[in-house]
Every structure is written in C-alpha cells, then in structure tokens.
Amino acid sequence: MAAREEETRKKEETEIASSDSEDDEHDSKERVLQRYFLQEWKLVKSLLDDIVSNGRVSDPSSVHKIRSIMDKYQEQGQLLEPYLESMVSPLMFIIRSKTIELGVDFDEILQIIKPISIIVYSLVTVSGYKAVIKFFPHQVSDLELAVSLLEKCHNTSSVTSLRQESTGEMEAKCVMLLWLSILVLVPFDISSVDTSIAGSSGSVGEDELAPLVLRILGFSKDYLSNAGPMRTMAGLVLSKLLTRPDMPKAFTSFIEWTHEVLSSTMDDVVSHFRLIGAVEALAAIFKAGSRKVLLDVVHTVWNDDSVLIKSGTAARSPLLRKYLVKLTQRIGLTCLPYRSPSWRYVGRTSSLGENISLNASNKNDQLNHGVVLPNSESEENSNCPEDEDMDVPEIIEEIIEVLLSGLRDTDTVVRWSAAKGIGRVTSRLMSVLSEEVLSSVLDLFSPGEGDGSWHGGCLALAELARRGLLLPTSLPKVVPVVVKALHYDVRRGPHSIGSHVRDAAAYVCWAFGRAYYHTDMRNVLEQLAPHLLTVACYDREVNCRRAAAAAFQENVGRQGNYPHGIDIVNTADYFSLSSRVNSYIHVAVRIAQYEGYLHPFVDELLHNKICHWDKGLRELASEALSALVGYDAVYFANFVLEKLIPFTLSSDLCTRHGATLAAGELVLALHQCGYDLPIDKQKQVSGVVPAIEKARLYRGKGGEIMRAAVSRFIECISFSRLSLTEKIKRSLLDTLNENLRHPNSQIQNTAVKALKHFVQAFLVAMDSKGSISVTSKYLQLVGDSNVAVRRGSAMALGVLPYELLANQWRDVLLKLCRSCAIEDNREDRDAEARVNAVKGLISVCETLAQARENSDIHSGEEGMSLFLLIKNEVMVCLFKALDDYSVDNRGDVGSWVREAAMEGLERCTYILCQRCSMSSTRESDVLGSVSKLPNSDFAEENQMCSFFDVNLATNLVGGIAKQAVEKMDKLREVAAKVLQRILYHKEIFIPFIPYREKIEEIVPNKTDLKWGVPTFSYPRFVQLLQFSCYSRPVLSGLVISIGGLQDSLRKASLSAFLEYLQVDEDINNESKVCKLSNDILWILQEYKRCDRVIVPTLKTIEILFSKKIFLDMEAQTSIFCAGVLDSLVVEMRGSKDFSKLYAGIAILGYISSLSDPINSRAFSHLLTFLSHRYPKIRKASAEQVYLVLLQNGSLVSEEKTEKALEIISETCWDGDMETAKLMKLELYAIAGLDVGPIKTTEKVPNKDVKKSAAPDENESYSSLVESTGF
C-alpha cells in the first residue's frame, strides 16, 4: 500500500513539474540524472552547505568524503556535469571572498584555501578542467588576486610531494593556475589592470613588460620544471597569456628561453622535467596561437624540435617523445593553411532537410563517391586554393617523416599522438600528397617491421578513415593489410606478441563502419566479417575478442541489412565473449551454422590455434575443432583429418602436440556424428602413435605433454572402436603402460582414462589367457619398489572391467588392501600410492558388485564371499586408512588418504546395504524398527543382514565424525558432507545407525551449510560426545583442535566444548564429566607415545584443569588424576618436546594443588624437573612449585613453607645445573619426600582403560627417538 502511495505521489510530482513553465534547465537535468547521483548528491550537498555556511572547511573528514564519492565517477564524469555549477561556484566564491576579506598576506588564508582546492581539484580530475573552469569567477579585478595567491602558494612549498598531496598544497596550486588560465584572457591590456604600474609612474615602456606579466611568467616557468600536474597547467596559462595580441614581446622572450632550454646539455632531473615542460608549453602555444604570429618562429622551434627528437635524451623518455611529436604535428598544421579539401570523403550529410531534398538519382550517384554538399563545395572552392595551386612548404616533408617515424615508436602514447598528427596534417594536403602519405603508412605493414609499426599503422589508418581521408578507391589496398593485422601474432620465446596490433586492427574496422556508406562498404564488409568473427571467437585475449565483436556490431548497425547480422551480434555479445571456453565451444559453434563462416573458422583453428604456443589454447582448439564436425563431416574427414595426420610428426613441439590432440578429437566427433571412416583412413589414424614412437618424439623437451596427448588420442580411438591389428593393439597397450609408470600424475591420469576405454574396446574380447596376463601384470606391479609404478598400477586395476577381474578378484582386493596400509620401510612410503590404492580398491569393489548384481549368481557362494570380503577386509582396511596421519616436507599428506578413505567408506557402505536390501524380504519391517532404536542393543536381536551390522555402522559414523572435528577445514567439510549423504541417500537406506534421529538433528538435510567454518561445525558435532558409542573417536579428534597451534580453531573448538559441558549442568554435568574423564584416559592409553595426539591431549587437560573441570568429581577425581600421572611418567621421561613438557608440568601443578593423597605423588614428580637438563624446563617447574606451595598448605608444614618459598625464589633455576640439584635435594628434605624413581601404579582403576603390560622404558624411548629422526 505504501509503495502504491509513493508511486502516485511521484506521478503527481512529475505532472506538476511538466506543467510548471518556470522549471529551469538544471532542474530537469537533475531529475533525469537523479537515479545515478541522488543518494550521493544529498550527502555532498549537505557537506557543501556546511562549508559555505561556515565560510571554510570546519571538518577535514568532509573533504575526504567528497573526494571518495567523486572518485567513483572517474569513468562516468558526465554524470557530474549538471551539478558542477552548484558545487564549483560557491567554493570558488569562498576562495575569492575570503582572500579579499582577509588579504593575501594573512597567514591563515592558505589553511582556508587548501581544503577547498582539494574538492575542486577532485572535480577537475573526474570531469576535466574544461568543464570546471567555466564556473570560475572571472572579474578583471580577480587577476591580481589570483596571481598573489599563487605566489603565496609557490613561496611556501613543502619539502616532499607526498606532503603536498596530503595537505592540499598541490591542489591549491593547480586550482590557482586554472583560475589564471581564464583570467589572463581579460579583454583589456594587462598593463591597464596592473595596480603596481598605476601606483608608481603610471606607464610602461614599449619594450618593457608589465610587472604582473613578469610575475606570471616567473612562476609559470618554475612550474614547467615540476613533475606533477602543475607543469601541464602552467603550459596552459602560458599558451593563453603569450598568444594575446598585446604580448608579442613576452612571446618572443619565451621562445628565446625555450630555445635555451631545448639546446641545453644539462642532464639532471630538474633539467629533464624543465625540458618536458618547455616542449609541452610550446605544443599548447602552437595549438592556441594564431597562424600569423606563429609562422615567424616556426623555423626556430622546428630546428630545436628536429634536433631534440633525434637525441639520446628523447630516446630515454617516452613522455618527451610524445610531446615532441605533438609539437611536430602542430608546427605542420601551422605551416599549412586551414582547408577542407574537396577530395575528402564525406560520410554523412549535415542536416535532415538536405537529406530529404536530395532526389533519388542524385543521391545514388553521390553515395558511390561520398556525399559532398553543393554549398560546402562552392565555399571550399572560393575560400581554399585549388590543389594544383597550393604551395606546400618544404618543411612539411620533414614533419611527415618524423610523424611516420613516430608510428614506429616503442611506446603506445607516442604512436597514438603520431597517428593523430598524420590524420590532421593529411587533411590539409592535396589528394596526390595524401596518396603518398597513405602509401608510406602501408609500408609500415611490411614483414620486416616490428609490432610497433603494425600497431602505429593501424592507428594511422583508423584516423585517416575517421576523417574521410581514406577514399573508397584505396580500400582494396588497405583491406588485405587490415586482415593480416587482425591475425598478427608473433612468437617470442615462451610467449607471443601482437594482441595490441589485433586490437588496433579491430579499431580500424570499427572506424570503417562509421566512416563509409553501405554501398561502399558492402564488398569490404563481406571480406572483413569472417575475419572479425574469427578473432571475436578464437582470439586468446578477451580485449581482442570484444574489440572485434564491437567492430562487427558497428558495421552491422551502420551498414544496413547484413545477412544474419543481428543474430550474430546477439550471440557474440560483450558478456558471452568474456569466457574463452564459452567463445570457443559455444559462441563459435552457433555462428558457424551461418553460411560463409565454417571454413574460415576451421582454417583459423587449423593453421593458427592448433600450433599455438599456449598449451591450454591448443587443447581448447582441438575441442573447438571437433565441435564443428557436425556441420560438414565429409569435409572434416577428407580434408581436415588429412591435413592433421602429417602434422603429428612435425619437428615443432606445439604443432605435433596440437595435431595429435585435434586428430583424436576429430575421430571421436566423426564417430559420434555417425560417420564411419574408410578403411584406408582408419589405417592412417591407427598408425599415428606407432609413428610417434618410432620417431622418438617422447624424448627431450616436450616429451611429457606428448605422452598426455597420445593417451588422449588412444582414448578417442577407443571410443570410436576403430579396427586395429593385433600388433597395433599391443603397441598401444605398451604405450599406455609406459605412461602409467611415469612420475607425472597428469600423465598417469590421462593414461588411466585411456586404458579404461581401450581395455573395454579391444581387450575384453580377447581370450581369457590374454586378459589374465594383463591383470596379473598390474597385480604384480602394485608391490613394485618404484613409487610411480605403484601409483599407476593401482589406478589401472581400478578401471579394469569385470571380465578381466573375474578370475583374480580376490587377489586383486587383498593386494590393494595391503597397498592401502603405510609401508613398513620408511623409504618406500608414498602417500599418493596409498591414495591411488584406496581409489582403485573402491573402483574394483564397485565393478565386481555391479557385475554380481546384474548376473544371476548373487545368491551363490562366490557372490556371498565377495561381499563378506568387502565387509571383513575392505572396510577394515579403509578404517585403518582413516588413521593415516603421515607427514613429510609437504605437510599432512596423510589427509589425502583419509579423504579418499571417507569417500571409499561411503561407497562401500552403499554396496553392502544394497546387497542387504536385495537379500532381505523383510526390509521395510527391519528399517522401521531400526530407526527407533537408540543404541546398539539391536545387534543381538536381529542379524538378518550379515554384510552390514550395527558395529560397522557405529565405526563408520564414529570414524567420519572424528574427521569432522579435526583441524583441517577441508577434511571437516568433506566428512560432514559424506555423513550427510549417508544419512539422506535417496535410493539406499543405511540401517543400524545408533541414535540416528539425534544425528539427523546435528547434520540436517540442507545444502550450503558452512561445514568448513569452525564456529558452525564444532557446536554441532560436540553433541556426539553424549553418546558412548561415538564419544571416544569424536573426543580423540576434538583434542587435536583444542590443543592445536591454530588460535582461531582452538578458540572455536574449546568454546563449543565448554558450552556442551555447561548445558544441563544441574542434571547431567557430573555424569558428562565422568564419562569425559574416562574417555581421556582411554586416549592417553590408546595413543601412548604418539606425540601427534598426546601433546594436544595434555594441553586440553591443562585447559580443562584451568577451568576447574575434573577437579570436583569426588572419587572420580582421584582415579582420573592417578591415570593422568601414570601417563605423564611414561610420556615425559626422556622427552625433548618442550610443548609436552610444559603441558605436563602445568598438569602436575594442578594435581599437586588438590587436597587429596594423590597430590604428594604429583608434587614429588614435579620436583624431579627442578634438575632437568633444559634450563627453561627447570625454571617452569620452579614457578609451578612456588604456586603449589602457595595454594596447598598440606604438602609442607607452615614453619617450613616460608623457607621453601625463599629457596625457590632466590635460586637461579636456569643457571648452574649443580646448584639446581642441591636446591632440589633441600626441597625434598623440607617436603619430607624420598629421592627415588617415580613408579607407575600397576593398574588404573578404570574399567574402560585398556590394561597393557608396561614395556621396557629404554626400549620404548629408543623407538621414539628413532621414529622422530633424532
């Protein structure tokens, strides 16, 4: 309702505004642009109003707010133009009024001007100075005011440019210079407004300059040496001042000064910027000055210019060369009188009335030659000399030569300026001379020229076309050159150059579309269109693709009814061409359906892209070529394939790699189109790989990418089921086997993909003996000492079809199961081999299970034994793989195995449960009852399914949940998603999961859950600790995170854990803590001497002790502390791990502080560390002993406590070892403890803790040292 009222109100306002005759133009513009600028304008206007009302910037932050808003409009400055007057005028009024009010000599005047200048200058940078200075005040009296202000800014310059930018001094200078550029145009003699003259003698001699002019010239020359924007603006001021009719003396003096600067041989930084400033100022003067005045100094300036442009100084400075070229072209324009040549091609009539007045016959005649209006022609004939009567100065030839040289420059800015100069100068020449200029420009496209010449030539052609100086009669010479430029790509080492040339060539085509009528462009567009669309679809660079598409769109829009033009423009738009893959595979295929584009596209791919230096582009080009096969299969089979096969043996690596890929993709595409290759063609294709091997093209540089390409080629011909001889089959199989042994994983992966289809296509039909030999070979290589061979063989076994596995499936499964385990020999360990073994094992299981389900033998003994083997061997193997925490120099490489194992467990679970559902006739009853059972008691009641039981389900969920609470974000996310799929599989129900309903609350069936975010996942999964069947695996993973090194992860996991313990504190907290203590003792025993788990577990215990958890469990506290002490005795003896020692000492301190008999044993153990070999450990122990004595008065009698504290505080424990030992013995005596070895209790009074015989201490420690590499 409110929205409707708002809409009605807006309509009423619009009607009132339209009927209001007093609405000014600014208001109407503001309404049009309000959707772009309204929100910011409200803020900007409020800030400006505040500045205007105060007469100054009271809050410096408002300046930065306005500047940040203006910066957003950097690319769309025209949106600000309706608001410039309302922003600039009040700000400049403040500058003017405050200066008049306070005076220039007032010290604080600059502090008022600078912030305002920052705002004005930000508008200049966005909208341009020409749009802004229109709103500057320009009273005659302001001239001296502005000069005085600028002098004050100039004389108080800062030390560094950074400070100028930060305080507004640079902006103030720029704004004052812009203000002066308007004020020096006052229509009076400047000496008449100079108050210093009126105050002294009242007159100035003819040869003297007014003091005001001298002041302006003085600081303007200084600013010409500046490296900032003041240099350009000083040149603007000089160009307006010195070209005044009353300034001939000043003009002559400045030309003499520039002659000295340009002739100077000084080579310091200031001189270099002064040189640039002088040339820039001269260029501005030659742009603004009258031809009559400038002709007198042309020879002087040109001599300096021509010498300087050939000097080494110019060669080192692109900016200097740019201004020299700009000055050169303006000297040329000065030497040539302005004329609108009669031979110029006029692309559009100037008014609608003249268009209507032209009769049809006359119009058609003019369209063929360009429209030249009768009145303009007569005016040209009367005002301009005829071509043959025109006298061209000799200097013009030199100027054109300099401009042509500028087109070859190494920098784009110089070439662009030279191209504009060529266009401007040519527009004042005779037609004969213009043809010579065009001929010289076309010479830039010779093969010997570099990419700079081609780029400059394209820019020059575009300028000539835009100005009507490139006649339609010259297009037959120009178009072939433009076509070559569209495809310009020159290889330079590992890359190529030419994207800027192709971009400029597209700009030329765009200029053609805007300059010529459709009758003149019809034949040209037919030539250019296929090449433009080729670049638009297949160029490597996105800017070139978009530029070519824009050029084609411009031509279609302006040249009339081009066949399929609108459809193609809609297909190849700006956004669809942003993706290279989309351009190659989709856009090009849709365009190729139109007549005239298929063959150009194929030629481009065949000759330029298949052999491209970029490997990714070659692969994409081969796919793009195959995507076009459907339009003309015969052409591709007879012509394209015939061309590609010889290229597979090319000496150039890029060519043979691309040709091999493309040939394979073509054969596959032809097969998919239903086209059968002739026998002779099949023989040619089948001989490609043997020929490559015979030529030994796998060796040397590029051998790896050729192996990958050959594997893809074999995969394609396997899909196509070509007829191969037995010899060829064996050769191809050997090739794949060699690629499987390669250490490069990418080559192995491509070989495995090829092997899968090759075996299915060519080996399944072989005799059983041949298939057995293939399987036996891979089975044998799985245990090879070469890790690359093990990796490849495991993957190969995973892709073999059932026919090759049928006779040896048991051996294959058992062998792969053994390969999943960590190798005994440390040198043979390889994480990638284990990952591949896990993946291969799962693939073999799925292959066998699917074949058994599709056959009629699933109820036989062999079928039963398969699924029992999966349950008893494969699942056990995968559960062991979940405990693979191997680490090498790359980090936790065991995580790759764990990730693969989780996915493998999921897939094997589906296999077993699907088998159960097939063999059970009472599935619905069983599933209905299972989902309601809370615990594992169901195992005793129903054992209908012998392949998947409650123990398996418990271990499955527990093992995955453990990974879901560990420290790696990626693994947590994978584990949660695997568990989610298991719980909510649409086709297969997973039975026997204890507490399924609770788990489904923890892991809901929702997408886009952020399982990798610790603050989201931990609060959910810690709830599994309440279930005894899951608590131990979950806690063993959780302690890794709580006691880990990553701070954010530790905080999130600990917070979730403590929150879990505090929920329902009155009812279940004590039982929770008791269960938790038992589980921690189980972890300490289960992972004895495994620092990966023990260290974070000890840190976790320390943190929990600090939170007063475990310290108030009555009888359970003693049991827990005794168990922890037993573990500490084993773990800390002989340990060199500082983290473990620090955590253990802290735990001993907490236990010693208890009022329980166990404290004396902990305190005795703590005292032993006072003589530890590491000083830091002795010091940490002493600190803990001190705290214990303060907190627990039962350990030492009151009269001895003070002495013990004195010993601890006065002894330097990280000093001399002997002193520490003596002090330790004294403390033992004070505490009444015996100095002796710490013995472990024979049993831990916890029924859940495993009993194990105490191993030999020295043996266990030696093994630990050996395993850690000491």
UniProtKB/TrEMBL annotation:
Keywords: Chaperone. Residues 1-28, 1244-1270 are annotated as: Disordered. GO terms for biological process: microtubule cytoskeleton organization; post-chaperonin tubulin folding pathway; tubulin complex assembly. SUPFAM superfamilies: ARM repeat. Residues 1-14, 1244-1254 have a biased composition (Basic and acidic residues). The keyword Magnesium does not apply. Residues 319-566 form the Tubulin-folding cofactor D ARM repeats domain. One of its GO terms (molecular function) is beta-tubulin binding. Pfam families: ARM_TBCD (PF23579), ARM_TBCD_2nd (PF25767), TFCD_C (PF12612). Residues 955-1140 form the Tubulin-folding cofactor D C-terminal domain. Residues 1260-1270 have a biased composition (Polar residues). PANTHER family: BETA-TUBULIN COFACTOR D (PTHR12658), TUBULIN-SPECIFIC CHAPERONE D (PTHR12658:SF0). This is Tubulin-folding cofactor D. It comes from Herrania umbratica. The gene is LOC110413414.
